[in-house]
Amino acid sequence: MELFEARDVNKVFASTQALTNVSISVKEQSIFGLLGPNGAGKTTLIRIINQITAPDSGEIFLNGKKMNRTDISQIGYLPEERGLYKKMKIGEQAIYLAQLKGMSYRDASNNLKKWFEKFDIMPWWNKKVEELSKGMQQKVQFITTVVHQPKLLIFDEPFSGFDPINANLLKKEILNLKAEGATIIFSTHNMGSVEELCDHIALINKSKKIEDGPTNEIRMKYKTNIFDIKYRGEFRNVDLALGTDYKIISHDESEKGNTLKVQYLNGKSNNELLSAIMPAAEIMSFEELIPSMNDVFIKAVEESNKI
Amino acid sequence: MSSTLLILKQEYLKRVKKKSFIILTILMPFLIAGVYGLVIYFSIKDDTEERTIAVYDATNLFLGEFSDAGTTSYHFIPKEEYASLKTNLKGSGYYGLLFIPSDIYSNNQAQLFSEKQLPLELSEQIERKLSRFIENDKRQKVIAESGIPDLEERLSHTQTSVNLSTLKISQSGETKKSSSVVAFIASYAMGLIIYFFVFMYGAMVMRSVMEEKKSRIIEVIISSVKPSQLMAGKIIGTALVGLTQVAIWVILGGIGLVVVQSFFLSPDTAQQMGQSIMESQGQMNPAAMQAAQPNQVTEAMEMIGNLNLPLILFSFVFYFLGGYLLYSALLGAVGAAVDNDEDSQQMVFPVTFPLILSIMLLFPIAKNPEGALAFWCSIIPFTSPVAMMARVPYDLPLWELLLSMGLLVLTTIVCIMAAAKIYRIGLLMYGKKVNIKELIKWLRYKG
User: Fold this and answer.
1) Residues near B316 by Cβ (< 8 Å), separated by ≥ 6?
2) Distance, CA of B216 to CA of B224 (rounded, Å)
């Protein structure tokens, strides 16, 4: 079931095309990675979802219904460029922001206290923001994004400014939120976290969507048919057996066993590679190398830039 | 609670709870009273400088007639000393040198030399002394020549001083005592207060917008509420702070008035105040001065009472809100458009120029409230809040007031709509140097 959908969204700023016919759909209780180089149009799309800007054409739906202004209380948004009122006490401020999202004072206060405990920042409740470290402020911002239990969460670079320990804490919380039923749109340049967290990604480049699909499928799509093979036997024999249909990228011989990195060319399959090698050596392990999200990102963007 | 209300409450409490607000609100009336008190004090207090004026009297008639007055004393000198002093006054210890020529009776001319610019008061004093003496002397001669008994006493009965009360006839035919001086003070004060309020609170709105933009909280806020709601909450919340301040001042002022009335108010305080305000502007308006001779406290009070207080109060609130809404919307848009203080300085000036102009023209407008300058300034919406407030105490044609108010409302609505557009676009625009041309381009954007 789709929680969120954008159909054929277009947006032009002055003379720059920010989005061209972009459509995405986000399944309920999933994490959707919105990826793309700087200036691709991600932030514009996110702002359209948040009803900060209106699209020139195209429609957006939440829960199957066309979104309107009142729906934004069901969204929690953590912008990339974020801040807080410097002179305000953080507890008071968090309550105010939660109230703006439609919570009552009492609910806001109760929920916030739970979150503050969880993130270990309760002692700072009455401190002013300017007295807090940047990481601490980021925690407060994260809390104010999720405290009103929105159905749809949008995180734009949530990990920037966090140390590895707190980044891990945040990752855990994001997965927790998903387990509890939240749907998350996640925009980042940190491809490691995309592999870890995202069920589905869309890649935007120069205002156009160039890739869209479940994370694993996309990675599979960009695989280059390269395999890591460990075997016992003579490299010479293997080399002979593979012939010209396969390209050996590298090989290494050691006492623990020989390794081989090989790529098959068009028209071949995993099993054919396996059967080609089998007569020449004893296979110890056979692993297909799936490109990292990082590789996928770079490749996809470079290819689309060539066109 | 609706978002606008929530923002309004937040903006209001944030400011009212500030220590600086509380201190300023309580101190401001004393400060203003203090400043004007000083001006009045210095303008009416006695000169304390010791001055000795050397007098060379060629007629030999005035010896003994120049009694020392206050801190000024007169010293008669012989002709030889006069000649040397005239070329060498400096270092002689004399403040000035008065020469009374022998033909003063026929010519009515005397000369006063000095190193420094003489105070007006001193030369007037000497003029008075000389004139009175000569006039008296001539009259005595006439009396003696006429041979009519008791002539002097009979003549003294003819001396008359007319006290002109200015009365205004209202449309119903009623006459009311009015005082140009009281109206002048009221009109000047009103214009000033409006100016300060519009400027102060408009700037407050601008700073608040800039702060949100600078701290980058703005994106979170406008993903929760519409920019228009944010702007409305901010502007209304800040206006309420201003009204709170006025309310406190009205209460303080009421208490102060009672206190002043029972202890300090001297008969001609009102007049002196008027005089000193005019003097502080470097201009005199003798007509207005002579017109008012309120001899008693009650009379001054009556004249204040005869100002159309309900109308003045209503107009004040109206023009305060109108002017404030107009300028705070514009300044709010400026705050949204720029992202650093220097750029804001550049933008603020063109926006607030009409307001500054209106305060510069306040004096001539208050002095001549029926003139063309006053008329146009009070009709044009960007200057009308200050200019019209300066005219209201004088009773002006109703149609002018209504026209001015209507135009102000219309302009304010148009400006708020334009400002809202700039505001929405500007809030998330960073790192772009914005000028008026750019803003006009923004106004043409759709959506």
Assistant:
1) B190, B193, B194, B389, B392
2) 14
State which H helix or E strand residue B359 sits in. Answer: helix B341-360
Whether B33 has a pLDDT exceeding 90, the answer reads no
* A148 contacts A98 by C-beta, under 8 angstroms: yes
Residue A286 belongs to what H/E stretch?
strand A282-288
Question: How close, in Å, is residue B216 to chain A by CA atoms?
Answer: 5
Distance from the Cα of residue A243 to its chain's centroid: 41
Average pLDDT over residues B345-352: 86
Give residue B312's pLDDT.
Answer: 83
d(CA B72, CA B128): 14
Query: Where on the phi/psi map is residue A51: left (φ > 0), alpha (ψ -120 to 50), or beta?
Result: left
Mapping DSSP onto H, E and C, the string for A170-201 reads HHHHHHHHHHCCCEEEEECCCHHHHHHHCCEE
> Nearest-CA residue of chain B relative to A74?
B224
Backbone angles phi, psi at B153, to 5 degrees: -65, -40
Confidence of residue B123 (pLDDT cuts 50, 70, 90): confident
CA nearest neighbour of B324 among B212, B440, B204: B204
CA distance linking residue B447 with residue B441, whole number of Å: 13
Q: Three-state DSSP class for A259? A: strand
What local confidence, expressed as pLDDT, does residue A7 receive? Answer: 93
Residues of A with CB under 8 A from a CB of B: 14, 47, 50-54, 56, 69, 72-73, 75, 77-79, 81-86, 88, 96-97, 99-101, 141, 144-145
The ipTM of this complex is: 0.82
B226 and A CB contact within 8 Å: yes
DSSP letter (8 states) at residue A266 = T
CB B223 within 8 A of CB A50: yes
Quote the minimal CA–CA distance from A50 to chain B in Å. Answer: 6
Torsion of CA A32, A33, A34, A35, to 10 degrees: -160
Mean of pLDDT over chain A? 90
Q: Do B215 and A85 touch (CB under 8 A)?
A: yes
If one counts every other C-beta atom within 10 angstroms of the C-beta of residue A240, the result is 10
Residue B7 has pLDDT above 70, yes or no: yes
At residue A87, what are phi and psi to the nearest 5 degrees?
Answer: -90, -5
Q: How far apart are CA B33 and CA B297, in angstroms?
A: 19
3-state secondary structure of B39: helix
Quickly tell me which residue has 């009515």 as its tokens: B108
Q: How many CB atoms lie within 10 A of CB B106?
A: 8
Any idea how long chain B is? Answer: 447
Type of residue numbered A288: E
Pair A208, A40: CB distance under 8 Å: no
Do residues B191 and B277 lie in contact, with contact meaning Cβ atoms separated by under 8 Å?
no
Mean pLDDT, chain B, whole residue set: 80
Name the nearest CA neighbour of A263 among A247, A250, A287.
Answer: A247
Write out pLDDT tens, residues A181-199: 999 999 988 888 999 999 9
- To which H or E segment does residue A210 belong? strand A208-214
Whether the pTM exceeds 0.80: the reply is no
Residue type, B195: Y
- Amino acid (one-letter) located at A192: G
> Hey, which residues does B112 pair with through a beta bridge?
B98
Mark yes or no for CB contact A52/B217 under 8 Å.
Answer: no
> Is B220 close to A82, i.e. CB distance below 8 A?
yes
